[in-house]
Amino acid sequence: MLQLAALAIVTGLVEPPTWVFFTDKQVAPADLEAALVRQERELAPRALRRRVRVRGDRGVDLRDVPPAPAYVRAIAATGGQIRATSRWLNAVSVEADAAQRAAIASLPFVARVQPLARTRRHEHRRPWTDESTPARAKGLSWPQLSALHVPDLHACGLTGAGVVIGVQDTGFLLEHQAFAGLQVIATRDFIQEDDVVADQEGDTPGQHYHGTGVLSLIVGSDGEVFSGVAPGAAVLLAKTEQIDVEEPYEEDYYVAGLEWIEGMGADIFTASLGYSDWYEQSQLDGETTVVSQAAAVALADGLIIFSAMGNEGPDPTTLDAPADVDGVIAVGATDFDGVVTSFSSRGPTADDRIKPDVVAPGQDVWMVRTGTLVAYEMAQGTSLSTPLAAGIGALLLEAYPDLDPAGMLALLRATATHPDAPDNDGGWGMIDGLAAAGLYCTCEDADADGHFAAGCGGDDCDDADPASHPGAREVCDGRDNDCDGELPAEEVDGDDDGVRLCAGDCDDADPARWPGAIEIADDCIDNDCDGEGDPACAPTTGEGSGTGESGEAPTTSATDATSTSDGATATGASTGDGASGGSPASGESGCGCAAGDGRTSAWLLLMLAALPRRRRRR
Question: Catalytic residue among 141, 272, 344, 383, which?
């Protein structure tokens, strides 16, 4: 159902197609891994990275495996015509007569069948408009953009660059000059099963009108004449809504388009489409409708979703699905003063949650006039407030790329105009883009690490070092890389020799010991920290020797020394002939430090003792 104001409702209804839900996916445990690998390969790398980041697992599971081909073939064998297939729901939609539906329901692998969501037919006439040419249109978009503080976001460099938005609607005609620089990644028409998203043979003329206007509010760019909220974003375009009064069923196309956009790697999904006419209010609980179930899966995969509340206000519980989903950012409409319009649908959901989440301008909003090259027109509806809100989402995601669906929702709510008093008319209030962008637009990120200096309210303890910010990995550099206020003990340089324990200093209390230091002969110290002591200080292997660990300095005292026959001083016991025999002698310390001939002159010992300590390495 299109969320446009004052759409006339035609009462004629036709028999809807049918959802067919399967009991399983017919994948044996031994075959599951191969099936998941195939699905990984089918996902765009961007989609898989988003899933892994948000979900914390490999990014695919059994939900991503398509319905069993044998089951789908069996459905087709009944004579029913397959319309769409859903991996997430493990279901297909099928056009079938009563006899075919009965045959399908009797199949052993069919869990249940239910009618596809059937919308009341709408007269898709254009809302009240005021056509304008460029001569009159200078600055047309200013009121709607300034109400959301978009010019401030543009001034600090945010355009939506690097963000991919999936837009799903009735179709898109891209001939207007506001789309001249548009980055289109891919398009898909789920109605005619091709890639043409503008009107073509078989479409009701003018079908692309609604989607074109919606798209211009996000990414349009026409110099000083007109601008969308996020003109730098790239888009994926899905044509899923059919306005032909003979085919008023699009719930299955909506699900198929959502799955395609998510799998193609979109960061944000927006649809000014909703479904409620065939559901009871008690079913708008965020879990019952088919589109709501699909939206919940997309949220779990990390896709940020904006959805129109609908135009059935001001009565309570008039919202559409999937705006009823907890986590979907449901958008209501206001005028430029922030007053909620009378037509904007209201909450709560059936399970008594507040909806909408936020509101944005949806009355007297300027957009491109479809079918022209230069003209613009004015319209109203939550169809227009929703793409404006999605554009804000793109700017915020450019500023903070790690935002996930829950983070985006929390940020928009917390910075809206009345976050402490949400209600079912306007949710948490009018979006304030500048407040949501926060420090990105008011504080410099000098080292471009995504964190702002503590001096202006940020959390970066060293904004000159991109390796230092909250959540950073500690490295052996003597700095508090993760900004937790503590320096790990192994990064402290206790002896001020320029080498830390984490860098291999084997004795952080001795500045003469560090990797690369020059070994001092006969001092029995492992100066260069290579794990090997002086050869002359090797422990003895003779009987009665101590353990003699490498690197231990010998202990020699007057009481330990004995005189040999020629008056020289030696450590340990002397032999009968006054010469050391065999291996170097070993004292109680286990360090054999005798000279090769068993004697060390007194003047040599004095000279070694007088050597200056090594200058500390800086």
Answer: 383
